[in-house]
């Protein structure tokens, strides 16, 4: 299975195979789990007693200016520098090609000097148009939720708490529209920080920036409300602060990322599937774990009631999910169904037999949840620094066998049809915005990104028919260099079987949204709110403890958050 | 990204050089390896745009050929280009590494008329071909010997002070390190410890000079012109914030 994860023989029996897991429809039904990156980051913050402090708040009564928020970890300090400005409403867009934002951010490695802040003031608000240095780890921006931002400020200024129903319908005060790390626009390369314990896991430094942004948005509304309301103003009720997440709009950029980092994706999926297998492999349930699970069904039912979106397809899925969770709750209330060996496997199997993919993946999350001590170590395996290597000494006969075993999904597609190659992925000259074009209607398919895995595999198999089985890959690629990348990929899949999406990404029926949701669920996102087939809004850190509550014993209990009881 | 003096990251080297290679119609697998070689170049303190612009220009202007042939010989094998053009270092570099990875112990590989030897060296470095050396006499009659002496340590011995990245047009001989190789008569020696150089560039970034513009221009060939229709196919199209 590739990475260092170990299984007992029993757990191995419960591993779901890649051909089941790595299909777009299932990937597009993913939910966050306790291994998701935000969850593991919050646990680290709490366990290591990270300290948070606002170092600077040079903003006017409307909230415009510069602020600095620092977090002290056991070995280092990181600082979020936030620039806020007044922008025309008609220029507020979530797209990559936007040029102005309500707030822009840099996460700085250490505590910035005035000189650093002056430099960033000239660059951070320009985002992709600025240039950054290895001292900057993350670049990001956010726009206000117009509905909520002013409502919260005006309520607090009058000494009242905001309308929680309205708050729940949005879920956040600001919505990030891009978070860049890993060397983008001159920022620090991942290699600079990869050996730091707090940065080793996937996207930890980016998600730290997002956590600080969420804190900043709440601090900002409280500050502006205080300026406006004076003595009458109040702070947000802590339970409301905790319920507020930070929004995010995610578009097509995530799709190429998944394809370009197969080993990383394998490590994520392997960890999640290992966790599921470990839980399914428990013969006798741990004390109290089944009760926790049953309780979580009620909580998730409430969460589903509060998960409301405009998208018709997703609304239908949520409706179906509500009914299925209700049905599962009833089924679980019959003790005869669960008082048997391997109860978790029975629950999983029942779900797989009777319910939708959306429900199956939700139940995966829920049955993993009560098993922190059993699975949390897997969160430390969810990264990979390796890249696929060409194995030049492999005979063509072995390559053919791997294609047969792992790429049947590709070799059985008829790529002569228009439908099978309806789409192409490309970068636009407009700020390098990734786009998903129609081959028939748009120009530029000759510049398509090399995400044509299925088609390339199909063409390779034809070419392999013409050469000897004994030929080595080294000799084949010398004569056929156009297949170098796909052979490397196929060989890698043999070692890392969860690395490949087993569907045709060019097909007429392809929904990029499925790829986005898959990745966002690993981040720990919730309340997926699709806005088209190409992009979605989500909520991050909704329900997560604010900095001053990280030491609470309930710091890890924020999955599938619901409106605070006292405000219902 | 088109300024004359710029500091970039390793991630940007990978991103832009992969597409720059693809922009001159190198197969994507070769372009990916070309980018990784350039990351290695950057990690050793060189300007990757200076090291690579000539190789890309040569392919683009058809002074170099990406088509490569290999002939086994008694001592190992020869890589060559069947046409009168230079052999492109983009093809030569990956083919040499592939052959080394098959095991060239006690053998020698000859790479005939390769345009920019530095890219072959970079591919060997990026792929940790330790215990291997490369010797060549270039078309300016400058001699070079590069030895990969240990993990992450390599040295350049040359007959002149011309930077290795400017050496052009050579027959390279690649073989296991041998103490019997005769050194260039007038010797300039420089040793590189990749980890040290890399630590510096992770803290300060990679400085690229005026050739960066050329790399960016080749990269830009992978971008699709924006039209009203294509703008409408971007994520978030047509939407102004309403939440």
Tell me about this structure:
The complex is a heterodimer of chains A (568) and B (243). By secondary structure, chain A is α+β, with helices and mostly antiparallel strands. Chain A has three domains: 37-251, no CATH class; 262-378, no CATH class; 396-499, no CATH class. Helices cover 43% and strands 14% of the residues of chain A. Chain A has a nine-stranded mixed beta sheet with strand order 1-2-3-4-5-6-7-11-10, with helices on both faces. Chain B has helices spanning 10-23, 28-43, 48-60, 89-102, 117-126, 194-204, 212-220, 228-232, and strands at 6-8, 64-65, 69-72, 76-80, 86-87, 108-114, 132-138, 143-150, 153-158, 170-176, 188-193, 206-208, 223-224. Chain B has an eight-stranded mixed beta sheet with strand order 3-4-6-10-7-8-9-11. In chain B, helix 2 (28-43) runs antiparallel to helix 3, helix 2 crosses helix 5 and helix 3 packs across helix 7. The model of chain B has no long low-confidence stretch (mean pLDDT 91). At the A-B interface, helix 6, helix 8, strand 7, strand 8 and strand 9 of A face strand 1, helix 1, helix 2, helix 4 and helix 6 of B. Strand 8 (423-428) of chain A pairs parallel with strand 13 (223-224) of chain B.
The total count of strands of chain A amounts to 11
Sheet with the most strands: spatial strand order of chain B: 3-4-6-10-7-8-9-11
Helix content bin of chain B: 25-40%
Please compute the radius of gyration of chain B using only Cα atoms.
20 Å
Q: State the share of residues found in helices of chain A, binned by percent.
A: 40-55%
Mean pLDDT of chain A: 94
Task: State the distance separating the first and last CA atoms of chain B.
Answer: 34 Å
**Structural class computed from helices and strand pairing of chain B:** alpha+beta
Coarse shape of chain B: globular
Instruction: For the largest sheet of chain A, list the strands in their spatial order.
Output: 1-2-3-4-5-6-7-11-10
Quaternary structure annotation? heterodimer
> What is the number of strand segments of chain B?
13
What does the average pLDDT of chain B come to?
Answer: 91
The Cα radius of gyration of chain A reads 24 Å
Order of helices and strands of chain B: EHHHEEEEHEHEEEEEHEHEH
What's the helix count of chain B? 8
What is the largest interface, and how many residues per chain?
Answer: A-B, 76 and 52 residues
* Beta-strand residue fraction of chain A: 5-15%
The low-pLDDT segments of chain A are: 1-7
């Amino acid at each position: 299975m590739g990475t260092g994860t170990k299984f007992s023989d029993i757990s191995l029996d419960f591993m779901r195979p890649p051909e089941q897991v790595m299909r777009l429809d299932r990937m597009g039904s993913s939910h966050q789990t306790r291994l998701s990156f935000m969850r593991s980051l919050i646990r680290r913050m709490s366990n290591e007693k990270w300290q948070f402090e606002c170092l600077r708040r040079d903003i006017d009564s409307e909230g415009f200016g510069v602020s600095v928020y620092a977090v002290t970890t056991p070995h280092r300090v990181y600082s979020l520098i936030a620039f806020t400005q007044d922008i025309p409403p008609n220029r507020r867009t979530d797209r990559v090609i936007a040029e102005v934002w309500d707030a822009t951010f840099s996460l700085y490695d250490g505590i910035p000097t005035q000189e650093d802040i002056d430099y960033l003031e000239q660059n951070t608000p320009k985002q992709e148009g600025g240039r950054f240095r290895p001292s900057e780890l993350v670049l990001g921006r956010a726009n206000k939720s117009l509905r909520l931002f002013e409502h919260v400020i005006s309520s607090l200024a009058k000494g009242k708490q905001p309308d929680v129903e309205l708050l729940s319908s949005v879920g956040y005060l600001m919505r990030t529209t891009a978070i860049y790390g890993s060397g983008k626009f001159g920022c620090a390369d991942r290699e600079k920080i990869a050996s730091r314990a707090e940065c080793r896991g996937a996207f930890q430094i980016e998600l730290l920036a997002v956590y600080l942004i969420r804190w900043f948005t709440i601090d900002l509304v409280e500050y502006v409300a205080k300026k406006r309301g004076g003595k009458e103003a109040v702070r947000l009720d802590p339970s409301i602060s905790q319920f507020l997440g930070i929004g995010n709009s995610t578009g097509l950029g995530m799709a190429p990322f998944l394809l370009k980092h197969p080993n990383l994706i394998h490590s994520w999926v392997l960890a999640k599937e290992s966790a599921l297998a470990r839980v399914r492999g428990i013969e006798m349930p741990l004390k109290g774990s089944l009760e926790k699970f049953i309780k979580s069904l009620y909580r998730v039912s409430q969460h589903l009631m509060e998960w409301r979106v405009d998208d018709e397809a997703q609304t239908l899925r949520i409706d179906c999910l509500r009914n299925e969770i209700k049905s599962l709750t009833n089924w679980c209330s019959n003790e005869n169904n669960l008082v048997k060996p391997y109860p978790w496997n029975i629950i999983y199997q029942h779900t797989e037999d009777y319910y939708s993919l959306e429900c199956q993946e939700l139940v995966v999350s829920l049955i993993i949840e009560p098993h922190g001590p059993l699975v949390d170590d897997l969160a430390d395996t969810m990264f990979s620094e390796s890249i696929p290597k060409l194995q030049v000494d492999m005979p063509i006969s072995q390559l053919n066998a791997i294609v047969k075993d792992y790429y049947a999904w590709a070799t059985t597609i008829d790529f002569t049809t228009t439908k099978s190659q309806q789409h192409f992925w490309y970068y636009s000259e407009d700020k390098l915005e990734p786009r998903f074009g129609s081959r028939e209607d748009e120009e530029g398919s000759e510049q398509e990104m090399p995400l044509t895995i299925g088609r390339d595999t199909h063409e390779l198999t034809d070419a392999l028919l013409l050469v000897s089985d004994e030929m080595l890959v080294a000799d084949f690629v010398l004569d056929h260099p156009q297949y170098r990348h796909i052979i490397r990929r196929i060989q890698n899949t043999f070692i890392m079987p969860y690395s490949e999406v087993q569907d045709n990404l060019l097909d007429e029926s392809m929904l990029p949204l499925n790829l986005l949701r898959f990745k966002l669920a690993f981040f720990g996102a919730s309340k997926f709110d699709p806005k088209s087939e190409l992009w979605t809004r989500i909520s991050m850190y909704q329900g997560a403890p604010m900095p001053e509550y990280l030491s609470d014993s309930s710091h890890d209990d924020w999955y599938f958050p619901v409106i605070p009881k006292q405000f219902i | 990204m088109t300024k004359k003096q710029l500091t970039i990251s390793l991630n940007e080297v990978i991103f832009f050089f992969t597409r720059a290679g693809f922009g001159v119609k190198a197969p994507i697998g070769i372009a990916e390896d070309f980018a990784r070689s350039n990351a290695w170049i950057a990690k050793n303190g060189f300007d990757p745009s200076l090291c690579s612009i000539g190789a890309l220009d040569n392919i683009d202007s058809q002074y170099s050929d990406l088509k490569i042939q290999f002939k086994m010989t008694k001592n190992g094998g020869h890589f060559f280009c069947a046409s009168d053009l230079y052999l492109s270092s983009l093809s030569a570099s990956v083919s040499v590494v592939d052959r080394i990875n098959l095991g060239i112990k006690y053998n020698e590989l000859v790479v005939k008329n390769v345009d920019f030897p530095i890219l072959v060296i970079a591919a060997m470095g990026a792929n940790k071909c330790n215990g291997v050396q490369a010797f060549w006499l270039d078309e300016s009659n400058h001699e070079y010997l590069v030895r990969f002496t240990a993990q992450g340590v390599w040295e350049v011995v040359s007959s002149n002070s011309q930077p290795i990245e400017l050496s052009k047009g050579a027959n390279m001989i690649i073989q296991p390190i041998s103490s019997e190789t005769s050194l260039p008569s007038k010797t300039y020696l420089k040793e590189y410890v990749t980890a040290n150089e890399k630590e510096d560039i992770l803290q300060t970034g990679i400085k690229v000079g005026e050739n960066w513009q050329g790399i960016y221009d080749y990269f830009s060939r992978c971008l699709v012109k924006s039209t009203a229709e294509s703008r409408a196919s971007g994520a978030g199209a047509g939407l102004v914030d309403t939440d």
